Amino acid sequence: MMPSTFQQSNSLHAAIIMDGNGRWATRRGLPRIEGHKEGSKAVRRTVEAAPGLGITTLTVYAFSSDNWKRPRDEVQQLMALLYDYLRHEKDRCVAQGIRLSVIGRRDRLSPLMRAAIRAAETATAGGATLHFRIAIDYSARDTILRAASRWDGQTAMTRDAFLETLADLHHPGVPLPEVDLLIRTGGEKRLSDFLLWESAYAELYFTDRMWPDFGADDLRAAVEEFHRRTRRFGAVPVAATGS
Ligand code: FPP
Q: Which one of 47, 82, 219, 237 is separated from 90 by 20 to 30 angstroms, measured CA to CA?
């Protein structure tokens, strides 16, 4: 039996590693930030297309904890883009029933950014069409470590109890959404410290499409491929058991 804290079947959680912004821009002789700006538009397209494809939770990797190592200018420009997105998309999210939330560390973000996150989360809290999660200053390993450090050391830590602790770090009271479909654009094939625990049984989908070129048709192709796969979670398919 799967742990009870994992959402099952009638929900589809897609997570996206949005890679290729820099290459998209460089190939056009543009500064990297132009790739990130086009990438923001691709985020908007993806969020709009997601509910129509049966996606109920969408998590995008906008800024990893390792991205702090990028040149200062690029970090500032990315933060400015994320800030603008949170401020400007809030009303559209409310109108479309989208609940927006942010996962990751907040203590290293600016007070302005933290306020924009809080405002967007509060304004969209009632959204039930899609839970759209943006990962900012996110590291899966850091999240797992923080969850483990909450263990009291006295009683045995069950898997369910650990999952609840992990979920609680991001959205207190909301079950941990297991990733069903993990998409990575930009041609690379790695997980880059994104949702490692939650993706234990995710179907992986890699595409050469650079993130700024990603659109509704690409998302549809990924979801269709997901539905063609047989998920076994380590078991034997019922038809093969003969029972
Ligand atoms: C990876 O491409 C992309 C990022 C580190 C940033 C992603 C950010 C956005 C798409 C923009 C804003 C996001 C939201 C949610 C509004 P890369 O720069 O590593 O590309 P490269 O591998 O081609 O250099």
A: 219
Q: Determine the atom of ligand 1 nearest the C-alpha atom of 134.
A: 15
Give the separation between CA 60 and CA 80, rounded to whole angstroms. 17
Q: Whose CA is nearest to atom 18 of ligand 1?
A: 22
- pLDDT tens for 125-172 read 999 999 999 999 999 999 999 988 888 777 787 877 777 888 888 877
Q: What angle is formed at CA 104 by the lines to CA 102 and CA 108, rounded to 5 degrees?
A: 110
CA-nearest residue, atom 14 of ligand 1: 40
- Does ligand 1 come within 6 angstroms of the Cβ of 22? yes
Query: Does residue 19 have an active-site annotation?
Result: yes
Dihedral of the alpha carbons of 126, 195, 112, 92, in degrees to the nearest 10: -40
Does any ligand 1 atom lie closer than 6 A to the CB of residue 34?
no
How far is ligand 1, taken at its centre, from the CA of residue 67, in Å?
Answer: 10
CA atoms of 170 and 117, how far apart (whole Å): 13
SS3 61: strand
pLDDT value, residue 1: 37
Q: How far apart are CA 169 and CA 151, in angstroms?
A: 13
